[in-house]
């Protein structure tokens, strides 16, 4: 995988990668952040979907966004993928401010994998074309011939996700898990600087989930992989190698920062409104209701 287009950011000496300040001569440089939300609120019809969210993602970070149904996770991803504008505050993505930039130029730099996007892919579309067409910012095949460089790259990504043998199949004939992996390959096709994964393991059986978690872990540990944000309801779905966590509840941030510090029983209880027991085995997390 190619290295991100931007170089490494400079941290203050000794400072952990906490998702907060990137400093150049003492100043926070928003341009060096992959995502930067400042005082962000989103309102729809009198309802607050997000309230006063402050959040920064740096180049080398892999974030998990965790929260119950309706917490605002997808809304957060819609801001990061430039599909939605904030009602309050500012959103900067890849150094560009939403509302002041051409999002159509920004979107090819962002890889998005979501069930909403997968649902728009025509069932008859050949899997390899589903992936390769991302390079042309279209969902279906629109040219008779793609460049062999592009089809080779698409095959390479399908292989990476373990579905290379399905490249010639129609997308509609794939299982849920196979579709997930093919759409992640599509999200990576443009060599994005930011990868957004909305519930990639939802609907997968145990084996499919474990396989996907392993592949996402490989991606997370690849220093050349893009900054990533993965949305999930389940701590079991956090791939090893993810570095940071943002816990959301009712549109507000419960906690955020380094995963090891954020993922605590106390924070999970606040997030899910349950008395939860959290266990860790190696780099994997498991949670269940206490008692
Ligand atoms: N256009 C809208 N008008 C009013 N409410 C909305 C609108 N869009 C979303 N909501 C509400 O905002 C809240 C947050 O939605 P969002 O999809 O971001 O949550 P989520 O954390 O992704 O949930 P889930 O885990 O169930 O996918 C939900 O309660 C949802 O019903």
Automatic annotation (TrEMBL):
Provide the alphabetized UniProt keywords. Answer: ATP-binding, Nucleotide-binding, Transport
Q: What is the lineage of its organism?
A: Bacteria, Bacillati, Actinomycetota, Actinomycetes, Pseudonocardiales
Listed GO CC annotations: membrane
Q: Which InterPro entries match?
A: AAA+_ATPase, ABC_transporter-like_ATP-bd, ABC_transpr_CbiO/EcfA_su, P-loop_NTPase
State the SMART domains in the record. AAA
PANTHER family, sorted: SKFA PEPTIDE EXPORT ATP-BINDING PROTEIN SKFE
Q: Which Pfam families match?
A: ABC_tran
Q: Where is this region: Disordered?
A: 1-24
Question: GO terms for molecular function, please?
Answer: ATP binding; ATP hydrolysis activity; transmembrane transporter activity
At the top level, the lineage of the source is Bacteria
This protein's name: ABC transporter ATP-binding protein
Every ABC transporter domain range: 35-275
